[in-house]
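Record type: monomer structure entry
Structure origin: computed from sequence
Chain ID: A
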Amino acid sequence: MTTTLDFDKKCAICTKTSPQTVLTSTNTSGYPDLDLRPPEMQRSTMFAWLEECPHCGYVAKDIENELKVSPDFLKSEEYLTCGGHEFKSNLAKRFYRHHLIAKAEKNYTSEFDSLLYCAWLCDDANDELAVEMRKMALKSIDKIISRDDNERENLKLIKADLLRRSLQFDEMIEEFKDVTFEDEIRNEIIKFQLELAAKEDSACYTIEDVPKKVTITLSGELHKKLNLIANVKRASLVEVIEEMLSEKADETDISELFKNYYE
């Protein structure tokens, strides 16, 4: 469940007050996209990820926080016109402006995140600028990968998706054909990305779409049982099977595993 609260906030730039929506809680159910965009309901909370002053146009996570560059930047042609990009989504404009501020402040992580989120919003609006936003995001991602040890592997997964979805198939294949990770899940994701790039497929996919190594054939009766359990748990059939496999990892006979687990 997603909950929000509205507050009157005083802009740190123009000192005028405006109502702003603050996200207080949300949840997710399902699988993220290959660029790690979260599933619903968190997916639909982007309207509350940034605040925008309606008086001076200042965009920030919290407009009560000071701008680190000159306030005159908000009056520049680049900021006012979003660099000449005519977005279909007003929310995409907000994230693009936030990227411009982050770039001016030399906040590379925020700059990259805002461009990635802008691309997501362009996707939602069927805006062709999604490709351009991904190309722009790629220009800053290597700086973050080299600095952030904790998120390095996730960022590499995102980079692979950015290359593929910005139609840079050959570049994606060349960079990732020999890349390996410590965990098998990430390796399977990259393998899937390489297969998609080889087919010049730039569509959006989720983690659930990644082919699994284990192939299970279910009888009619067993399939019904598992579907019933999935409905009770409000989960997908794949999630139920994955939960079973994780709990019974020492079992070698998959058919016997299902039989013993659910009888």
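Annotation 1: The first strand starts at residue 3 and ends at 10.
Annotation 2: Residues 249-263 have pLDDT under 50 and may be disordered.
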